[in-house]
Design a protein that fits this description.
Blueprint (H helix, E strand, L loop, with lengths): L7 H6 L1 H4 L3 H23 L3 E2 L5 E2 L13 E4 L2 E5 L4 H7 L5 E9 L15 E10 L3 H22 L1 H6 L12 E4 H9 L13 H9 L5 E4 L20 E6 L4 E8 L4 H10 L8 H9 L4 E7 H9 L20
Parallel strand pairs: 1-5, 7-8
Antiparallel strand pairs: 2-4, 3-4, 5-6, 6-11, 8-9, 9-10, 10-11
Helix pairs in contact: 3-5, 3-11
Bound molecules: asparagine.
Length: 327
């Protein structure tokens, strides 16, 4: 029986009974190689790996329609980290090229649950670099992705074959599409935006299906994305999403950071964030943070694209689909 014919609830709650299937063995051997290839690449380029927290006083509010999980931490209020972005910036105190393999925990809306693209708990290979701009970050990211794909093709060809995945090594530079142009493109075929002002799930899948190579969507509207991105002009950001082709959709997001404390405060007000919650970030910014850029690659989405497995719950050892706790 094909695993996708087994209802998702069973695949989540009875995970331990399914992991012996050959498909899962191939997927998680490939995921292990993805992690190894990512680490090797980054260490070779002079990065150091730091460890991100999971419990924090504040977290990244720029997570689109998802919310935070609140936690009562002794007598203090805490949250589970939705994205390690603010800790990446803090980590730059240690070294100028850093990365985390960070846990991200997000209360994704139940009505967006599809078992395909969204998990309430997922990992990001989260990279931050000082003194590079968005263009340079896109070049580094393309190089990183190509390295990981080449390694998997070289070291896990047998597993890719078992999964019947014919994976092409992307050619660089990847195409860049401005967000406004992407909206126009999908609207010609009847797709539009969601309530957060992002491309709807269907629009994202559609634009991804029309591509055979990874590509970038750049210059998102300033109002809909995190306060930590620098503005390109009054309405757009110096940020970007990496899109996988063949319908796999968004796989990474990042951009150039705003490091001027007054401009960060303005960005917070513009995006409806209370600056008083981020005193420690302002202390860092006033002390002086060098210009920097960073990106986070979702590990599970990268595994989906590389293995060609459609459902995200299948590429996660212990999946936490929104609303389903599992193991
Ligand atoms: N990882 C993203 C970044 O580095 C932030 C996010 O996940 N919200 O910009």
């Amino acid at each position: 029986m094909k695993t996708r014919h087994i209802v998702p609830e069973l695949r989540i709650y009875k995970r331990h009974l399914f992991l012996k299937l050959p498909k899962y063995k191939s997927i998680f051997k490939i995921q292990s190689t993805i992690l190894k290839a990512a680490r090797d690449y980054l260490y070779d380029k002079g990065f150091i790996e730091l460890v991100a927290p999971v419990i924090a006083p504040v977290t990244d509010p720029g997570i689109r329609e998802a919310r935070e999980f609140d936690l009562s931490y002794y007598s203090e209020k805490a949250v589970l980290v939705t994205s390690a972005i603010l800790y990446k910036l803090t980590g730059l105190k240690i070294h100028d090229k850093i990365f985390f393999v960070a846990h991200n925990i997000r209360k994704e809306p139940i009505d967006l649950r599809d078992f395909t693209t969204r998990l309430a708990e997922f990992r990001q290979i989260d990279i931050e670099i000082t003194h590079i701009d968005r263009d340079e970050l896109m070049r580094v990211s393309e190089d990183f992705l190509i390295h990981v794909i080449e390694r998997v093709k070289r070291e896990r060809s047998e597993e890719l074959e078992k999964l019947k995945r014919e994976l092409k090594v992307p050619r660089r530079p990847f195409k860049r599409i401005r967000f406004d142009d992407a909206v126009e493109l999908v609207s010609e075929d009847g797709y539009g935006l969601d309530s957060a002002g992002e491309l709807s799930k269907e629009a994202e899948r559609y634009i991804s299906e029309t591509h055979e190579e990874p590509f970038w969507i750049i210059d998102f509207p300033a109002k809909i994305r995190g306060f930590y991105y620098k503005k390109k002009d009054s309405e757009h950001l110096l940020d970007m999403d990496l899109m996988y082709p063949e319908g796999f959709g968004e796989g990474a997001s990042g951009g150039e950071r705003e490091v001027d404390p007054l401009k960060v405060r303005d960005r917070m007000l513009e995006t409806g964030t209370d600056p008083r919650k981020y005193i420690w970030l302002f202390e860092i910014l006033y002390e002086g943070l060098p210009p920097c850029s960073g990106i986070g690659f979702g590990l599970e989405r990268l595994t989906r694209y590389i293995t060609g497995v459609k459902e995200i719950i299948d590429v996660t050892l212990f999946p936490k689909a929104p609303g389903y706790l599992g193991l």
